[in-house]
Design a protein that fits this description.
Helices cover about 60% and strands about 0% of the residues. The protein has 4 helices and no strands. The chain has a domain of about 40 residues. It is mainly α and about 100 residues long.
Amino acid sequence: MFGLGHWELLLILLVILLVFGAKRIPEMAQGLGRGIREFRKAVHEVQDEVEAAKPDGGKTISPTAAPDQVARQSTEPATQAAPSPVASSAAAEEEATPKESPQG
C-alpha cells in the first residue's frame, strides 16, 4: 500500500492522534463519512438525470440481451431530433431585428 509498511502507518496514525487529539478524530471521521455519502448521492442523481435524458428514454441494449429483445428494441421508432443551434439562433436574430414601418 503506497510502499508504506505497518510501522510507518502506525507512526502516521500516532502523529495524527497527537496533533488532533482523541476527541477530535471521531468527529473528523464522521464529517468525512457525511461528505462521501453526499458525494455518492449527488453522483447517483446525476447518473439518473443522464439516463432520463437519453433519447431512447433510458433504455439501453444489454450486451447479454437475447437476440429477439435486441431486434424489438432496434425497431422502435426513433425520436425526432432537436433543431440545430445554428437554425434556432438565426431565427432568434430575425425576430430580434426591428422591422421598419412605413411612416409617411
